[in-house]
Amino acid sequence: MSKIVSKKQLSEDVYRLDLEAPKIALKRKPGQFVILRLDELSERIPLTIVDSDSDKGIITIIVQAVGETTRKIVSKNAGEEILDVAGPLGSPTLIEKKGIVVVVGGGVGTAVVYPVAKAFKEAGNNVISVIGARNKELIILEDEMETISDKVYITTDDGSYGAKGFVTDALKNIIAGKDTIAEVLAVGPVPMMKAVCEVTKKFNIKTMVSLNPIMVDGTGMCGACRVTVGGKTKFTCVDGPEFDGHKVDFDELSRRLKSYSKMEKYGEEKQEGCCKGF
Amino acid sequence: MVRRNRKVVVKDFKVAEKIPRQKMSEQKPHERIKNFLEVPFGYTEEQAVKEASRCIQCKNPLCVQGCPVRVQIPEFIKLVTERKFIEAARKIKETNSLPAVCGRVCPQEDQCEKVCILGKKGDPVAIGTLERFVADYEREHIEVQNVPEVKETGKSVAVVGSGPAGLTVAGDLAKIGYNVTIFEALHKPGGVLVYGIPEFRLPKDIVSSEIKYVESLGVKLATNAVIGKTDTIDDLLNGNFNAVFIGTGAGAPKFMNLPGENCVGIYSANEYLTRANLMKAYKFPEYGTPIARGGTVAVVGGGNVAMDSARTAVRLGADKVIILYRRSKEEMPARIEEIHHAEQEGIEFHFLVNPVRFICGDSGKVKEVECIKMKLGELDDSGRRRPMIIENSEFRVKIDTFIIAIGNDPNPLIQKTTPGLKVNKWGNIVTSSDTGKTSRERVFAGGDIVTGSATVIEAMGAGKIAAASIHEYLSNL
Ligand SMILES: Cc1cc2nc3c(=O)[nH]c(=O)nc-3n(C[C@H](O)[C@H](O)[C@H](O)COP(=O)(O)OP(=O)(O)OC[C@H]3O[C@@H](n4cnc5c(N)ncnc54)[C@H](O)[C@@H]3O)c2cc1C
Ligand code: SF4
Ligand code: FES
User: Of ligand 3's atoms, which has the minimum distance to the CA of residue A236?
Assistant: First the structure.
């Protein structure tokens, strides 16, 4: 059991939750995640640990309500409990002093980027951040990113905030202006990560991405989270979640993410005769 | 004296032979394929007594030698003939703390029943079914099992993993006064008994009542505790615990490394069974975890895990389920009963074939599996004939879902985070087999994490040994 200590809405469907999880707060390192099961009927889903306070025994997660499970989670209020929280899972990011690091967060991906960017900054790197979303309303963690970045660029698809365009446009400008970017970290929707990697590949800039495949256990026991990296099968929950973006098979990841999309639609509508033939 | 005894035996033998081995009634195949309820119903009291009367109470019972934990079989069977069912269950529990589980899933045909003297001329005593009967009887008739009073030792033991090995160690040590905490990575204790073996073969209520019993002994349970992550073995040793037992099983699924293996619709048996059992995906959408349903499902493998996957697929509404196995029926490691049940449920067996690649459709969903025919060659190390490829014999099978049930490797999480813990070339923890001691002081291990995938009873046996040796070790500290 893990109590929700506080809850805050960040954008239309995105909420920040602080959970009581003292052990995890103490152990977690940037880049790691938890597996969470809301109640007896819920599925297990992975969520990045965005921040933690080991003195208070609290971890922060950011949840975007995109399906039945996440909607149920964000409908909970402070004071209510989450049945199961396991972690910290996954391999932590290797944080070193590298020089200039560009971090790119798309939509709720910014929540995954933030803890790593913060650690890069603390390790003495020059952190340049790009955060992007479809519109102004969907930009999250702007203030937090400001405090841990040397420079923040914002892009929106519709131009309602920051520069109009995609994160890749901002990234291209940054690359054009600087000659020695040590590393790029990109997290967001799969097409965004793929696009970022296509840009950085041309310039041969090392690029890490944090992947979000379907998971069950999160401990290397099922293989649901398998992805192809450099032609080899990897389990995201233990070998990742961060991988060399230039080697990831993003198209396969996209397809695997949609494994149950039809079923979930049926499930949400609670239709009779659900689920045969998917 | 000796002669007279022999005569009695011969006479009893004759009587026993006249009584046929009692059969449990079970759900009819056409009904059970539509539900997840247990298939056999178990004995009635009358059947149990009748079956027990077949046992000739051997002076030197071979059956006991055949049992990995040496259950006092003739003694408990005698209690059944006297209708002392609860006492019979208690008799088994002296050596085996999970009789309701073992009565259902142990391969008795390879153990006690294989060597039962009656088997020489006819059918052996149905030891497993009797075990199941008395355990169920006890559970259904006794509200709380009285917990023995113990003198606390003041020492604490951490048990990592809540499968049969961990539960046995925890129960045994609690009974002699240790303060025991079980750390389990998943949200529910039981190991393979809850996430792997399906409801229709081992109802989860039974597993949870066994776990409640272990808890009633004072054992504490910490779920969602992924050792190696939430805490390391060294954290436990440096914290409150005097010793640690590792019983983390063989939990990492093997894949085949074939082209197209990551197509949508291809599962490891672990994932498929975990979704269905632990997460109750067969009740989707009431339960939130989805699973592929319907269509043609193919399963590769020949063990219990393959049978469980195939029979789960049938119950999830598959139109057709096929098992692909690279050897022939004789070499299948699955229990005969499981193969038999699978056949009754309409599952097709294709022997001497092996998948070589998968063909996916545009959406990434698997469409076909390409297989190759095999033949059997010389005996290999396992004493079975080695399967060999027949060149140019490829053929394709149209499928919607594919399940890989070719075995598991040990999960390396603990081995990687515990310096100085010796493992063999497959990653199994190395122990001394008569003590369960590992290369690390105060650290013991047993079950599938040591032996590789084996059986429930062997894991329990290893747990017993480790519990005794932990007790000895801590008593001498
Ligand atoms: C589908 C299936 C069917 C089977 N059918 C039969 C059968 O009919 N008869 C039979 O005798 N045997 C059967 N077996 C084999 C049998 O279940 C195993 O041999 C037995 O369960 C092994 O027990 P164990 O205690 O060693 O490990 P497990 O039962 O595997 O339990 C290990 C536990 O440790 C936990 N764990 C792992 N890593 C960590 C960690 N780092 N931190 C905390 N916890 C951790 C796991 O989550 C798990 O709960 C079957 C196995 C499967 C998969
Ligand atoms: S070997 Fe068979 S007949 Fe003899 S004691 Fe055991 S169960 Fe009874
Ligand atoms: S989620 Fe099961 S292996 Fe990664």
Answer: 4
Q: Does residue B333 contact residue B303 with C-beta atoms inside 8 Å?
A: yes
Q: Over the stretch B48-104, which tens digit does the pLDDT of each residue have? A: 999 999 999 999 999 999 998 899 999 999 999 999 999 999 999 888 888 999 999
Ordered structural domains, chain A, with CATH? 2-89 (2.40.30.10), 92-210 (3.40.50.80), 212-260 (no CATH)
Q: What is the mean pLDDT of residues B427-456?
A: 94
Which residues, including other chains, have CB under 8 Å from residue B76's CB and lie 6 or more apart? B88, B89, B91, B92, B130, B131, B134
Mean of pLDDT over chain B: 92
**CB within 6 Å of ligand 2 — which residues?**
B 55-58, 61-63, 73-74, 116-118, 124-125, 127
- Residue ranges and CATH numbers for the domains of chain B are 2-141 (1.10.1060.10), 156-251+410-475 (3.50.50.60), 253-407 (3.50.50.60)
CA distances from B130 to B19, B102, B138 (A): 15, 11, 12
Of the residues B38, B167, B186, B304, which should be mutated to test ligand 1's pocket, given the most ligand atoms within 8 Å of the CB?
Answer: B304
Asked whether the beta carbons of B442 and B240 are under 8 A apart, the reply is no
Q: Which residues of B touch A274 (CB under 8 A)?
A: 284-285
Rounded CA-CA distance B347/B297 in Å is 10
Q: How far is the CA of B74 from the centre of ligand 2 (A)?
A: 6
HEC-encoded secondary structure of chain A:
CEEEEEEEEEECCEEEEEEECHHHHHHCCCCCEEEEECCCCCCCEEEECCEEECCCCEEEEEEECCCHHHHHHHCCCCCCEECEEEEEECCCCCCCCCCEEEEEEEHHHHHHHHHHHHHHHHCCCEEEEEEEECCHHHCCCHHHHHHHCCEEEEEECCCCCCEECCHHHHHHHHHHHCCCEEEEEEECCHHHHHHHHHHHHHCCCCEEEECCCCCCCCCCCCCCCEEEECCEEEEHHHHCCEEEHHHECHHHHHHHHCCCHHHHHHHHCCCCCCCCCC
Nearest to A111 by CA among A141, A133, A85: A141
B35 DSSP 8-state letter: -
Model pLDDT, residue A278 = 39
pLDDT at residue A68, as a whole number: 86
The answer to whether residue B317 neighbours chain A at the CB level (below 8 Å) is yes
d(CA A96, ligand 1 centre) in Å: 39
The beta strands (E) that lie in B204-269 are given as 220-222, 243-246, 252-253, 266-268
**What is the end-to-end Cα distance of chain B in Å, rounded?**
50
B107-155: pLDDT as tens digits: 999 999 999 999 998 999 999 999 999 999 999 888 666 677 788 889 9
Query: Using an 8 Å Cβ cutoff, are B321 and B328 in contact?
Result: no
Chain A contact set for B270 (CB, 8 A): 221-223
Q: Which of A69, A270, A276 sits opposite B288 (nearest CB)?
A: A69
| pLDDT exceeds 50 at position B10 | yes
Query: B136-152: buried (b, 16+ CB within 10 Å) or exposed (e) per residue?
Result: bbbbeeeeebeeeeeee
A–B: how many Cβ contacts below 8 A?
132
Instruction: Name the residue among A23, A89, A252 with its Cβ closest to that of B364.
Output: A252
**ipTM of this complex prediction, to 2 decimal places:** 0.91
Task: State pTM to two decimals.
Answer: 0.92
